[in-house]
Structures are given as structure tokens and as C-alpha cells.
Amino acid sequence: KPENLRLLTAILKEAGYIVRQLRSGKRVMASALDAPPDLILLDIMMPETDGYEVCRGLKAEERTCDIPVIFISALEDVANKIKGFSVGGADYITKPFREEEVLVRVKTHLGLRLMQNRLEEQNARLRHESIIREQALEALKKQKEFNEKIVQTSNALIVGLDKNHKIKIFNKGAEKITGFKSKEVIDKDWFEIFFEPDIYDEMSKVWEIAWGANFNSYVNPILSKNDDKKIISWQATGMYDDADENRHMLISIGEDITERTRAEKSLKESREKYRSVVENANDIITVNQGDVFKFINPKVLEISGYSEADLMSRSFIEIVHPDDRQMVKQRYLERLNTQKCTGAYELRILTKDGSIKWFESRADIIDWEGKTATLNVLTDITDRKLAENALAENIENLEQKIKERTEELQEMNVALKVLLKKRDDDKKEMEEKIFTNYKSLISPFLQKLKRSLTQRNQQNLMDIVESNLKEFLLPFSQKLSDPMVNLTPTEIQIASMVKQGLSNKEMAQTLNSSIRTITNHRQHIRMKLGLKNKKINLQSFLSTLQ
């Protein structure tokens, strides 16, 4: 009943417990599975499902099976109580409620639940610790086997020495590096086999330090079986047995750095050479990170006039000519984006005294002290630029002179063309006059005179005169032999139209004349060409003439 539920809730809350009130079996199951409580007080008589069935459901779920359940009922017969215990109930509270009994039973079962949880946790912890110990022992065993295998198979030189530097461990790596087999050196003095006598004292001091230290590192030379000297870098650690001092051992792991030492020496020498080259180069060489100088060679100071302190406190862009700064920034960004050299380009640098120097710049991306930087090589091309500018100026002056001379020649050419045309016109006019005079003043009378001569010798003389005269007029022979030479200008024009195939009507329209006039001109043309009374087409005949 609701009043019983409210009373029970009030008793428990007043005692300090956190209580959830649920009125149906389904809601009890859902709430307990969602957030398992520490204790459940379950009424036997409930809507839909009775308390026994709900208890069976709780005990069947892994999340709720261990939660103690106290049945609540007005039924006091033994059979109901036994049934409650048989389905998993932990206790029984009868109605009406007695506050002291309720609180005692709740407290008792919560205490038991707490103790049970602690016991389970402790048992779980003990089981876990036992498993861990077993795993640890197994791991130690495997690790020992593994370590021994590593020692024997490692390429590193691993040796173990006792306090008298007698060899107790000598692995495969040691055999490979030194050339000695383990059986040849075990229990023998390390110093006598691997050190030259002149370093015994030095190595004895190193030994004393290494023996007394937990960890020590050092480098020393040793002799191989074929007397080659090997440079070994050692990491040494002591393995001490408190129960038996005689079992103390110094374990040393060595790395053959002979080739590396030689390479480092060679690299150092090479760096010194390159540094000498850089410092004595005729080009400016700088290293910049962003806009900050990280390295400059002496040539920078010589050419720019700045001190090293001045330059190292300035940004590179400050000494670039203002007109070139945007271009230099753009080139820098291209190098960063592509991580490649962007090719040589020209720029101007402002020296300390304000003068301008021209340089050809070549730059590339490098790593400098672990960060991206730009290596810049700048070649002074100021003299070349001055020479190029002077040459360009000379070329410009020469081109101007050539232009002026060309204009003069063009003017002279025009004048010459005018003179040549005048000469051609005069020549043509003279030829026409000579031809006209010959045709009108000489030829008719010459022919008339020839016809009037009766004596043979006179005719011969006249033939000679005519022949000499024609020889004289030889340059004009083409005109003299031209069939159209006797045509008037109008007739020549009409002959050209006839040759083109124009009709009389078309020619009359073109010349603004009558068809009759055109017809008369055509008859005159046929007569002068010797075609009168001949069945020869005028157009076809004219087409044969050149």
C-alpha cells in the first residue's frame, strides 16, 4: 500500500539512507539493472508480478544476483517465509513495521554486504597478485634466458670482468670484433691480451673508476688478434653480489667506433677546409633563418662596410634596395613552399656608405642547427652591370645614329627614284620622238625615193643608207616591229577590251561613246593590223600578240 511505502521510506531516509521508491516488479528490475543498489526491500504482494518472481529475476542477473533482498509482508506463516528464502531472500520483515527492527535488519544486511564485498575484493586482489607473481617469475625466467641469448648473439662487444680484470664473459660480438674465440680468452687477464703495455697505467686508473661506479662510459683502444687497433666506446655497469664479493663482475658493452672515429676525423678536416674556403671566398656567403643572419663570411663585411655586430643585429631585408625587397621576399617564400632552389636572380644591396652594389644571388634551403634556413651565395656583379649599362647606352646611341642615317638614306632613295623615273620618262620620250620622226619624216620619203630611183647603183646606195639607218635605230627595233605601233591611244584601249572579250555595247558604255564609233575604231584596227578583208577573228589575233 502507498501508506506503507511512504512510512518505510521515511524511516530509512531519517536514518540517513538513500532510498528509491518503485511500485511495480518491472520497474524494480529495470532500476536495479541500470544502477544496482546495496540492498533491496521487496514487498511480496505487488501489482502485475509478485515479490517472489521479482526476486528470482534479480538473482538470475549477474549485475544483481549478489544484492541482498529483504521480503516485506503481512503473511507470517512459515511456508511463505521458506518460499521467500528459497527464491534467494536474505531476511523477512513483517507488517506492521517496527522501526527498530527495520533499521537493525537493514543495518545488519548492509554490513554483511559490505563485508562480503570487501572479502570478494580481497580475494580478487590476492588472486590477481598471485597471477602477477607467477607471471613475474615466468617473465624473469624468460628475461634471463632472453638476456643470455642477447648477450651471446649481440653484435656488440660484451665482456664480463672480475675484480682482477679476468675475463668471465666473452660473447659472439666480442669474438667477431676482436678475432679471438671465447675459449682462448676466458679466465685470462684482459689487460695482457687487449692493451698495449704503454697504456697499462692509464687503463688501470680507468678500471678503478669503472669498478667502483654503478655506471661508467669511456673510450679506449684495444688490440685485435691480428694486432689491428680498434677504437671501442664502452658502457660499463657493476653487477655486485652482497653475499660473495668474489662474484662481483663488471659488465662492459662495447661498440666498435673505429670507422666512425676515422670518419669524424675526416669530416672535421673537411669542415676545416670548407670553412677556409668559405672564409676566403670572393663571394658573399650567409646563412639566414627567416630574416635573421646566422652566419656571415668576411667578404660580407669587406663589401658592405658594416661590422659583424651591425649585420647580426639587422634583418637581411634592411640592406636590400627598396625596389628589390618585394622580389626578394617572393623568392624566399617560393623556396620555403617548394623546398627547392629557385635559380639565380639579380638584386641590389645598400652598403653602409649608401652606395649601391649589384649582386647575383643563388640560394638553397638547408638545415641549420635543427631548423630550416637559407644558404645564400651572392656574387658581386657591379662592374659587369656598369659595363652592361654602358654597352646598352652605346647600343642605344648607335641605334639612334642608324635610325637617323636610315632616314637620310630613305630620303636619298626617294630622290634617286624620282631621278631614275625622270630618266626613264626622258628616255621613253626620246625614243618616241625618234620613232615618230623616223616614221613621219624619214621612212615615207625614203620609200618614195627608193621607188623613184631607176639606176641599179642608186638603188644599192639607197639600200645601204636604209640598212645603216636601221642599224642606228636598232635599240628601237622592237617598237618598229610592234604590230600595234601604228594604233592611236584610243585604238590601243579598244584593242585591249576586245582582247578581254568585251562586246561593242560594253566598250561603248565604258568609254562613254556610241556603238557606231566603236565599230569604226575596230575597222581601223583591222586595217592597221593587216586584217582587212581577211577571215581572222580580231580577239584571237590580239591574244597571240605579246
A few lines on this structure:
By secondary structure, the protein is an alpha+beta fold. The chain contains 20 helices and 13 strands.
Description:
The strands form 3 sheets. Strands 5-4-8-7-6 form a 5-stranded antiparallel β-sheet, sandwiched between helices. A 5-stranded antiparallel β-sheet has the order 10-9-13-12-11. It starts with a helix and ends with a helix. The mean pLDDT is 83. With 546 residues, it is an alpha+beta fold. Helices cover 56% and strands 16% of the residues. It has helices spanning 2-14, 25-34, 51-60, 78-86, 99-153, 172-178, 182-185, 190-194, 200-211, 258-279, 298-304, 308-312, 325-338, 382-452, 456-472, 477-481, 489-500, 504-511, 515-528, 538-544; strands spanning 40-43, 69-73, 91-94, 157-161, 167-170, 215-223, 229-239, 249-256, 284-289, 292-296, 345-350, 356-368, 371-380.
Measured on Cα atoms, how large is the radius of gyration?
Answer: 64 Å
Mean pLDDT: 83
Strand order, main sheet: write it out: 5-4-8-7-6
Largest sheet descriptor:
5 strands, antiparallel
What structural class results from the helix and strand content? alpha+beta
The residue ranges in which pLDDT falls below 50 over 5 or more consecutive positions are none
Helix content: 55-70%
Strand content: 15-25%
Number of distinct helices: 20
Topology:
Blueprint: H1 2-14, H2 25-34, E1 40-43, H3 51-60, E2 69-73, H4 78-86, E3 91-94, H5 99-153, E4 157-161, E5 167-170, H6 172-178, H7 182-185, H8 190-194, H9 200-211, E6 215-223, E7 229-239, E8 249-256, H10 258-279, E9 284-289, E10 292-296, H11 298-304, H12 308-312, H13 325-338, E11 345-350, E12 356-368, E13 371-380, H14 382-452, H15 456-472, H16 477-481, H17 489-500, H18 504-511, H19 515-528, H20 538-544
Parallel strand pairs: 1-2, 2-3
Antiparallel strand pairs: 4-5, 4-8, 6-7, 7-8, 9-10, 9-13, 11-12, 12-13
